[in-house]
Design the sequence.
């Protein structure tokens, strides 16, 4: 079955700097890759997703890139702000069914 | 924030107790999910229901028993749990599990379960 690895497990950046979180997946049939943000004590919320027919997607300060050949995808956050501090999870699935999640990255933005 | 609700938000139970977790979605979705979130581990999919039918049981022990009476409600019945079952249990919903679907999953706030 699918296996998703996520790195790093923790990431500290200075406010205004960029943050990059990387995930690799094992099943070449996976075609849907969402990213969720979970603030302390709150539910995971979708922040961006990408499908296998595109290589990059951007939404304001957040972007996701996908390399199908290498089977990895990355989350990029530019101009980080303290409110970006949270746990970020990547996931992979075939057609959106049975999401397999990475272990999460704790992002701390220092002001 | 109120699209998917879960009750109770916190639950403490002994190993011999029987309790139930409830999830309700107000989004008109047809697929519902139970996940387990333990510290320092990935979110683990437990069960999937599509149009009230169970489509996935991810090798979950029988002390966890799901029930989906309709597309808006999902229950997780708990009995004779172990301390290692202590975790955050998250419910989620999506439009459906049709072929080619890549529907977003929306999560509830979770139930923090502690088994003594």
Sequence:
């Amino acid at each position: 079955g699918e296996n998703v690895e996520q790195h790093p497990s923790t990431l500290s950046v200075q406010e205004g700097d960029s943050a990059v979180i990387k995930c690799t997946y094992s099943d070449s049939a996976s075609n849907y890759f969402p990213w969720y943000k979970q603030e302390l004590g709150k539910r995971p919320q979708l922040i961006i997703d990408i499908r296998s027919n595109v290589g990059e997607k951007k939404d304001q300060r957040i972007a996701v890139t996908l390399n199908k050949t290498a089977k990895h995808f990355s989350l990029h956050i530019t101009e980080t702000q303290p409110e970006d501090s949270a746990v970020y999870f990547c996931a992979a699935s075939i057609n959106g069914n049975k999401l397999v999640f990475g272990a999460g990255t704790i992002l701390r933005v220092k002001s | 924030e109120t699209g998917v609700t879960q009750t109770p938000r916190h639950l403490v139970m002994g190993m011999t107790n029987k309790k139930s977790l409830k999830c309700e979605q107000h989004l008109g979705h047809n697929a519902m999910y139970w996940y387990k979130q333990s510290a320092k581990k990935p979110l683990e999919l437990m069960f999937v229901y599509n149009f009230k039918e169970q489509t996935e049981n991810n090798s979950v022990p029988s002390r966890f028993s799901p029930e989906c009476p309709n597309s808006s409600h999902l229950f997780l019945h708990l009995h004779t749990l172990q301390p290692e079952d202590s975790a955050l249990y998250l419910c989620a919903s999506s439009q459906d599990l049709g072929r080619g679907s890549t529907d977003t999953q929306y999560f509830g706030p979770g139930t923090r379960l502690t088994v003594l």
